[in-house]
Amino acid sequence: MNHFFDSTETKHWMLVDDNADVLSLTAELAGCLTDAHLECFHSPQAALAAFADAPEKYALVITDFEMPGMDGVELCRRLRAITPAQKIILATGSGFFTEAAARHAGFCGLLNKPFPMDALRATLAEAGLENALLAHA
């Protein structure tokens, strides 16, 4: 495989969104950019439980904001309570967040839905995840 830096074969990316179509599309876009194993969660509670069981395996979390039972900000807070340096990107269509507000809430990046692959690639690079991107992506 041809990569910019190290392979992410043993790393996982956690994708969290209660909308199955959006989750599928996010996974499809992310899958074009990395060889990391993508784990999709329809519920923030399930994502939190999986993360708590093995936080070291996740290189990245991309989460929606508006979800039933726990929003993305609360999920971010709880993930950071387990692993303070965890890279977490907020993906939202609410228009409520600016980049500065997202960073203040603990996120390392913001994706405004709907987002094209170029926006995902740029946000990943800005979050310091260049090593997770495929060279040909």
Structural notes for this entry:
It is a single chain. The protein has 137 residues and is of the alpha/beta class. The chain is globular, with a radius of gyration of 14 Å. Helix 2 packs parallel to helix 3. The chain has a five-stranded parallel β-sheet with strand order 2-1-3-4-5, sandwiched between helices. Helix content is 37%, strand content 19%. The chain has one domain: Rossmann fold. It is built from five helices and five strands.
Write the layout of secondary structure elements.
Layout: E1 12-16, H1 20-33, E2 37-41, H2 44-53, E3 58-64, H3 72-82, E4 88-92, H4 99-104, E5 109-112, H5 117-126
Parallel strand pairs: 1-2, 1-3, 3-4, 4-5
Helix pairs in contact: 2-3
Keywords:
globular, 137 residues, 37% helix, alpha/beta, 5 strands, Rossmann fold, 5-stranded parallel β-sheet
Order of strands, widest sheet = 2-1-3-4-5
Major beta sheet summary: 5 strands, parallel
- Radius of gyration equals 14 Å
What is the share of helical residues? 25-40%
CATH H level, superfamily name: Response regulator
Assigned CATH class? Alpha Beta
Averaged pLDDT: 90
**Given the C-alpha coordinates, what overall shape results?**
globular
Q: Name the quaternary structure.
A: single chain
What is the count of distinct domains?
A: 1
Indicate the proportion of strand residues. 15-25%
Total number of strands = 5
The unreliable regions are: 1-9
Instruction: Examine the secondary-structure arrangement and name the CATH architecture.
Output: 3-Layer(aba) Sandwich
Q: If helices are DSSP runs of H or I spanning 4 or more residues, what is the number of helices?
A: 5
The ordered H/E elements are EHEHEHEHEH
